[in-house]
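Q: I have 78 residues here and want to know how they pack in 3D. Can you give me a structure?
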Amino acid sequence: MSSSREWINDIELGERTGLGLQWLRVARMRNSGPPFKRFGRRVLYHWPTVQTWLSSQPGGGDTVPKGEFENTHASQVV
């Protein structure tokens, strides 16, 4: 049996993932974002399923730890 905390709304999903509310709404319309279920008018996301979806997405590139960007060559390009 799943706990009620496993089901979260789009606001909490945005807080946990950094995904914007507008992006989530558009992704729902396009059926291209994290899996969701409608319960009446409410849209909820099953957090364990979202985590699986997130890990299956291609990465966007290398990330530079905060504070280290100044030491890269890219910061010297004008």
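Q: Anything worth noting?
A: Residues 4-56 form one domain. The chain is about 35% helix and 15% strand.
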